From TrEMBL, chain A:
<keyword id="KW-1003">Cell membrane</keyword>
<comment type="function">
    <text>Part of the ABC transporter complex PotABCD involved in spermidine/putrescine import. Responsible for energy coupling to the transport system.</text>
</comment>
<protein>
    <recommendedName>
        <fullName>Spermidine/putrescine import ATP-binding protein PotA</fullName>
        <ecNumber>7.6.2.11</ecNumber>
    </recommendedName>
</protein>
<dbReference type="InterPro" id="IPR003439">
    <property type="entry name" value="ABC_transporter-like_ATP-bd"/>
</dbReference>
<keyword id="KW-0547">Nucleotide-binding</keyword>
<dbReference type="Pfam" id="PF00005">
    <property type="entry name" value="ABC_tran"/>
</dbReference>
<feature type="compositionally biased region" description="Low complexity">
    <location>
        <begin position="1"/>
        <end position="22"/>
    </location>
</feature>
<feature type="region of interest" description="Disordered">
    <location>
        <begin position="1"/>
        <end position="25"/>
    </location>
</feature>
<keyword id="KW-0472">Membrane</keyword>
From TrEMBL, chain B:
<feature type="transmembrane region" description="Helical">
    <location>
        <begin position="146"/>
        <end position="169"/>
    </location>
</feature>
<keyword id="KW-0472">Membrane</keyword>
<feature type="transmembrane region" description="Helical">
    <location>
        <begin position="20"/>
        <end position="44"/>
    </location>
</feature>
<comment type="similarity">
    <text>Belongs to the binding-protein-dependent transport system permease family.</text>
</comment>
<feature type="transmembrane region" description="Helical">
    <location>
        <begin position="113"/>
        <end position="134"/>
    </location>
</feature>
<keyword id="KW-0813">Transport</keyword>
<feature type="transmembrane region" description="Helical">
    <location>
        <begin position="200"/>
        <end position="223"/>
    </location>
</feature>
<dbReference type="Pfam" id="PF00528">
    <property type="entry name" value="BPD_transp_1"/>
</dbReference>
<feature type="domain" description="ABC transmembrane type-1">
    <location>
        <begin position="75"/>
        <end position="263"/>
    </location>
</feature>
Amino acid sequence: MSATKFPTASPTASPAASATAPGPVAVPRRAGTQIRLTGVTKDYGLASPAVAGVSLTIEPGEFMTLLGPSGSGKTTTLNLIAGFETLTAGSIAFNGADVSRLPPHKRNLGMLFQNYALFPHLTVAQNVAYPLRERRLPKPEIARRVSEVLELVQLTGRDGTYPAQLSGGQQQRVALARAIVFDPSALLLDEPLGALDRNLRSTLQLEIRRIHREVGSTFVFVTHDQEEAMNLSDRIALFNDGRIEQVGTPEALYQTPETLFTARFLGDSTVFELPYGDGAGAAWEDEVWAVDPATVSARVVAGSRAALVVRPEDVRIAADRSAVPSGANAVSATIRDVEYMGAYRTAVLALGRGGVAGRARLDALESDLGAGQSVTAWWRVDRQRLVAA
Amino acid sequence: MRAPRRSLRRDRGVDPVPWWQKIFVAVVGLYFILPTLFVIPMSFSTASTFQFPPRGFSLKLYENFFTNQVWLTSLRNSVLVALLAALLATVAGTAAALGLHRLTGRMARFARTLLMVSIVTPAIVLAVAVYISFLKWHLVGTVTGYVLAHAAIGVPFVLVSVTSALGGFDPRLLRASASLGAPPFRTFLRVTMPLISRGILTGAIFAFVTSFDEVVIALFLRAPGFQTLPVQMYNSVTVEIDPTIAASSSLVVTAVTAVCLVLQFVGRRRKS
């Protein structure tokens, strides 16, 4: 259905062909474009390159999020895909065709910006029609597509309004309509929700997911907000210092981090930094913990620094060692504070002699716990993970 | 001391402008329009020499102006030169402003200063330099010569006004436009130009007016077959003592004022 709604228009097709050529009607949803980055590098001549040898394949129709702290190279990578920056080394291919040297206006990509980047001198309808006029579509076709896409983003009837008269959320909807109306090969989203307040952000997150489903095109989303990344993505590429730290589904990144950076960036975790031999045990302070080889990341090199991480929901509190089930790993702890989180409470812990910070999610039965108490924290061996530090 | 207090007052917004500021503004305003207050009454005088206050009332001087081929030809020349010079200065100045806007660093500053040089160079120095080179290139007394020289002194005005208009222009719109499939020149036509049109228009008018009343270079470049209105005015006072200059000055002042008022009106309507 959406295939006939947004006929495929390639940038190389003649105007007449792109205006009338029907989409692949037999396919229920249009296949997106595959974006392949190979050794992509951008060096501004500073101390370290902004992007250093990133290789990543974004599958057709996939919702891929480039996640990372500011300055990690995720936005530069997006700009390289868009063609706003030139590659220092490496190559970028869309569906196997090298686009490394193609200027941005020939790449046929939709783009959503954090500040919306609507043209203030044009009305909503004129903004949305902009890419269609650039492609010389006939007037009736333009009018039809504009009204269709405005309906898709629920802005019917605002055609004649100027961007300045709209709220932030409405402006971003217009920008979204403008970015998908010409049926781009992929949609690039550069922190599009960063300027919106919390409620609006979650509404628009749902909106973006819905439109991704309906349009079926490849989405590349940049954000520093891990929650947003978890909610939206099929897969996340976590950036650190110009490199990809780890790529995977949100579950994979959360459940099986390979490095300490990944474990810390996605969700809370209690971290014990320790040396790890190739044995079955890990020693930390006075404790010797059992290690299940299945929970050791392949990136942990025997003999080098490693870290044992446990998620707060996996940490249990016991009154003393005798209450810890056999086979579980335990450490003595002091409760620093108990935080009320609404649906549950969290104990902030100081662990071991050094007082390493840790967190444990409490259930209702543990309501008698309070700050200052000495307890024992424990977790099941299969709920911990050993990662590269 | 005064500056912060003033800005505080502006913030409050409801405070009236103090009386001494009103007087100050009135005096400055009067100072600017004083010459006009003498010239316009004089242009309706019946006298055949310069006299103030004017005697009687007649349109004789205007009749002189509109029936004398010398005045009319020089007016036509001036308009032609000013239009072409303004066009050239606007294209060059806008291009320079766009280019320099994206550049930073010593070379960009140097280029900007170089383009602004004609504003601070004494007119007579420019005029002599233009005269000597144009003699060699056989451009003295030609429309091309006038246009080139006047465009050069018009460029700084366009550069300044377009640069200030670009200050309010969001460069991210250029990326948005490119992502939507528009090549750079189409982006300029559909996005940049409409958004900085006030700056371009202001610069163009300044360039036009600068050329229209330029007299020093024009004196050097004049030829028996081609001279501009300011040169003819200069002649009429120094050679002929012809009060028709009062009529021509009044016409010029009125025309320029009318253009500015229309622009003000158009600008305000578009904003609202």
